[in-house]
Amino acid sequence: MTTKSLENQAQWWRKSTVYQVYPRSFNDTTGSGIGDIRGLTEKLDYLQDLGIDIVWLQPVYNSPQNDNGYDVSDYRSIDPMYGTMDDFDELMDELRKRDMHLMLDIVVNHSSTEHEWFQQSRLSKDNPYRDYYIWRDPAPGGGVPNNWQSKFGGSAWQYDEATGQYFLALFDKTQADLNWENKQVRKEAADLMRFWADKGVDGFRMDVINLISKDQNFPDDDGSIMTGDGRRYYTDGPKVHEYIKELYEQVYGPYDLVTVGEMSSTTMQHCIRYSNPEEREFSMTFNFHHLKVDYPQGKKWELMPYDFEALKGLLSSWQVGMNEGGGWNALFWNNHDQPRALSRFADDGQCRVASAKMLATTLHGLQGTPYVFQGEEIGMPNPNWNDISEFRDIESTNMYRIMMEMGKTESEAFDIISKRSRDNARTPMQWNYGGQAGFTDGTPWIKVDERYPEINVKMQREDPSSVFHHYRNLIALRKTEPVLIDGRYVRLDEAHPQVFAYARINDTDTLLVLSNFSSEKAVFTLPEDYQSVDQGKLELVSGNSDQPPVWGKQITLDAYGSFMWIIRG
Ligand code: GLC
Prior knowledge:
By secondary structure, this protein is an alpha/beta fold. It has 17 helices and 20 strands. It has four domains: 3-111 and 183-383 and 428-472, TIM Barrel (Alpha-Beta Barrel); 116-177, Oligo-1,6-glucosidase, Domain 2 (Oligo-1,6-glucosidase, domain 2), CATH 3.90.400; 386-420, no CATH class; 487-567, Sandwich (Immunoglobulin-like).
């Protein structure tokens, strides 16, 4: 590839905002209660109006759906539940007409145990597909080969009677980890991506891709560093960069794709390597450190109020570090695996609208490519949960059972699941005031939140002061204000208990963001150079109140008040 095309590739998506579609819950056109591909096509005008130019579509391949499609049984198909290949082609055509791009979700750390490869693999030890997966003998005294734990609870090893060996499954027991040591597996992964690239997709979101290279000694984890569940032996593993570089040379580079790697429990050093264009790996990376600031000692299934200082510290250090290392961040508050940030970090009740806008301004002022998860742009909070039977997610139902086994009461376990479940993000998109929020004419696969009459797309598109219009404005700003792309990040608050303040500075402009993360008024003392700014050069470009604070030595922000200014020249 020429240097020029490398540069081009490195540029266009840096001004983009990506919209994440969880198809199951987006828009159902058949009355099945499950969203479908045509449902997405039907809403492209909506996404275009929002200013979106890249859509990330989550897995729609054939799958037994034990993990809602992240358990793929055929990588080159469309699950009938979501429609047909013709529907997919139509989606591509309609995206093209609107100059929009598609990013597909690729899940190749593991496949479903119903995949043909696995079906073959389990038949016998000398089957040609045996080595596609990670099979190990029982430990010398019997039992699992080591003490690694599944991310969804329990041992990461599953015993298979037929051949008397265990296979590795880091997620659900039906998601068998693929053996990337095997060259043939790597070739299959590249081939299946080429299949979709040949169909015209513009990029990929690579599911838990930093887990593909396991320490081949498979040691027991003594818990002396990290969580003790084995992740130190397969996270950002020994050959991960080598394997990703191979994918780049074979697929991402030649097809000029935009790629984002989902990086579980990663480090900044690795993310710089994954996303610095010179390394020829990915365009950008997701990391989750800022979304663990309410996990006591890293424990997801225990509750605590979030640590505001840690949140600011993490976002800031990734802003500075990735920039210095030439990496590129994917920016996000929400996705399909996280409870809604609005309910975690701000107020999803009385101050819901101000809070949703505050979080948006704070994130969209940062350096990186922002991602909006469906419903975030209308300020959807965690739904109201009334009973454990309302949950659908395999991780949540497993953890509920495990918590009860470990002695939690029903109500304690329910409380934790209600706050932490991935289903918080997965309830249907709220389109209008109609039955089931306009999502389906049938019975939705998961409940619709009761608050849809007050929180829906229809209402907000008609209201210029809505959360929707706030997002629309921020997304448009990224296209017109270079400082949002190249501005150097500087944190401005010194451990202020309520306010997050930062600047982005390039050769001509300075962008300033002040956000009050609390329900009380906050007073913030501007650093001196900002106090004396010529007010003629000051432009308020985003805010969540029609009464912006008066500029002065001290700025007073109302509850969840948040503003973005650009100081010109
Ligand atoms: C990723 C996906 C998640 C899935 C897991 C296993 O973290 O985002 O939804 O359960 O990988 O594929």
